[in-house]
Amino acid sequence: MDKKTLRKKYFALRKQVSNSAIEEMSLEIANKSLELPIWGKTNYHIYLPISEKKEVNTEYLLHILQGKDKSVVISKANFETMKMTHFLLQENTVLETSAYGITEPKDGFEVSPSQIEVVFVPLLAYDTFGNRVGYGKGFYDRFLAECETTTQFVGLSFFPPEEKILHENIDIPLNYCITPEKIFMF
């Protein structure tokens, strides 16, 4: 299936999910993440969800990371350069909501993508090969391409995978995707 069709399909599917179901499934996804062989690392990148887009609430994952005393990195998107800058999330990090509804750090201690060992990746859809569909701006594809080849990419989704997504050579596949019911390994 092509990406444009998948975006429409999954935006429609997300609209049908209640806020209470999002919270319940997000907690299940966070708990399932504990089964992954990723917890011996130090530097983890996590996205902060856009609630209007009914994304997986990563607050539960964030609590796990903080409880395990991991370094947590979050990003700030620049829509002029179409790139993200990554900052260490600290107690004194000031967060603000961008014009696009994205909660981001105002500034802080910058972290290179080469230092990040695990990335929790937002997505709309993914397939049985680990190919993902995002919102179409390519922010995460550019970011993931800057990471080391050993970096683990973990998608988070409320839904099971599609059979096959028509993808492009610039697309970076996932290593795992966590749903409330199952972990998919690619």
Description:
It is an enzyme of class 6 (ligase). With 186 residues, the chain is an alpha/beta fold. It has one domain (3-185): NagB/RpiA/CoA transferase-like (Rossmann fold), CATH 3.40.50. The protein is 24% helix and 23% strand. It has helices spanning 3-15, 19-33, 59-67, 139-146, and strands at residues 43-45, 71-78, 83-88, 95-97, 103-105, 118-121, 125-126, 132-133, 152-156, 176-178, 183-185. The strands form three sheets. A seven-stranded mixed sheet has the order 3-2-1-6-9-10-11, sandwiched between helices. It has a two-stranded antiparallel sheet with strand order 4-5. Strands 7-8 form a two-stranded antiparallel ribbon. Strand 4 (95-97) and strand 5 (103-105) form a beta hairpin. The longest helix is centred in the N-terminal third of the chain and has 15 residues, at 19-33. The model has no long low-confidence stretch (mean pLDDT 95).
Order of helices and strands: HHEHEEEEEEEHEEE
Q: How many individual β-strands?
A: 11
Spatial arrangement of strands, main beta sheet:
3-2-1-6-9-10-11
In the CATH scheme, what's the topology name? Rossmann fold
Strand content: 15-25%
Q: Which CATH-level-2 architecture?
A: 3-Layer(aba) Sandwich
Structural domain tally: 1
- The termini sit apart by 19 Å
**Rg of Cα set:** 15 Å
Major sheet, described briefly? Answer: 7 strands, mixed
Structural class, from secondary structure content? alpha/beta
The CATH first-level class comes to Alpha Beta
The CATH fourth-level homologous superfamily: NagB/RpiA/CoA transferase-like
Put simply, the count of helices is: 4
Low-confidence stretches: none
**Overall pLDDT score:** 95
Shape designation: globular
Helix content: 10-25%
Family: Belongs to the 5-formyltetrahydrofolate cyclo-ligase family.
EC number: 6.3.3.2
Catalytic activity: (6S)-5-formyl-5,6,7,8-tetrahydrofolate + ATP = (6R)-5,10-methenyltetrahydrofolate + ADP + phosphate
Enzyme class: ligase
